[in-house]
Amino acid sequence: MLCYALFETAIGWAGLAWGEAGLVAVHLPEADPQIARRGLLRRVLGAAEAEPPRAVRAAMDAIADQLAGKPTDLTGVPLDLSRTPEFHARVYEIARAIPPGETLTYGEIAERLGDKLLARDVGQALGNNPWPIVVPCHRVTAANGKLGGFSASGGANTKLKLLAIEGAKAAAQGDLFA
Fold first, then answer.
1. Residue at a domain's end among 16, 33, 67
2. In this structure, are 51 and 93 located in the same domain?
3. Is the pLDDT of residue 146 over 80?
4. What does the DSSP assignment read for 134-176?
5. Could you tell me if 102 and 149 lie in one domain?
6. 22, 8 in Cβ contact below 8 A?
7. Which domain CATH number covers 117?
């Protein structure tokens, strides 16, 4: 059975959905908790609202800390990878290792996967990331210091906001959208 819960952060209401194997989805903060609930439930059909178990509560607290600007290690948050293609899981593993305040490019991740021509595939995998923040896809940028896309609500502006909260050098650059 899949469950979910909403929680308040410094920048709005976020949500987590989980099953026995770990988190199945993270919904980035919205100004209104009902919008966050609807957005999460669109991605996790049939999930029931529930009191989060200790591990999920710890993930909520860590995400809230991260969004309040406190550097937090989210690499130990358990993820349910059972619905995740192998290539995506490899991309997510590399992205999870990017420390707060730092970035890699799509091409750098592709090179770590063994083929720089996989950069578009890396972007597609990150565009389908069910665990934003926990799998910090916002820390992956385009070549030449450009911001690149972001499929979450608010798009590139949300990505820039998350990078700014973390104090990333990329967020201080003025030409990220060029």
1. 67
2. no
3. no
4. TB-GGGEE-GGG------STTHHHHHHHHHHHTT-HHHH-TTT
5. yes
6. no
7. 1.10.10.10
pLDDT digits (tens, 9 = 90+) for 9-35: 999 999 999 999 999 999 999 999 999
Look at phi and psi of residue 114 and say left if phi exceeds 0, alpha if psi is from -120 to 50, else beta.
left
- The per-residue pLDDT for 168 is 80
Helix (H, G, I), strand (E, B) or coil at 66: helix
Instruction: For Cα atoms 45, 140, 118, give the angle at the middle one, nearest 5 degrees.
Output: 90
Task: Identify the residue with better confidence: 127 or 161.
Answer: 127
Q: Are 53 and 15 in contact (CB under 8 A)?
A: no
Residues 6+ apart with CB under 8 A from 59: 16, 23, 74, 77, 134
Beta strands, E only, 40-114: 48-49, 104-105
From 137, 152, 163, 168, active-site residue: 137
Asked if pLDDT for residue 178 goes beyond 70, the answer is no
How far apart, in Å, are the Cα atoms of 108 and each of 1, 94, 163, 172?
37, 10, 18, 21
174 pLDDT more than 50: no
Q: For residue 38, what are the domain limits?
A: 3-67
Q: Which of 74-88, 131-145, 156-170 has the lowest mean pLDDT?
A: 156-170
Mean pLDDT, residues 92-102 taken together: 94
- With contact defined as beta carbons under 8 Å apart, do 43 and 83 qualify? no
Our answer to whether residue 3 is catalytic in this structure is no
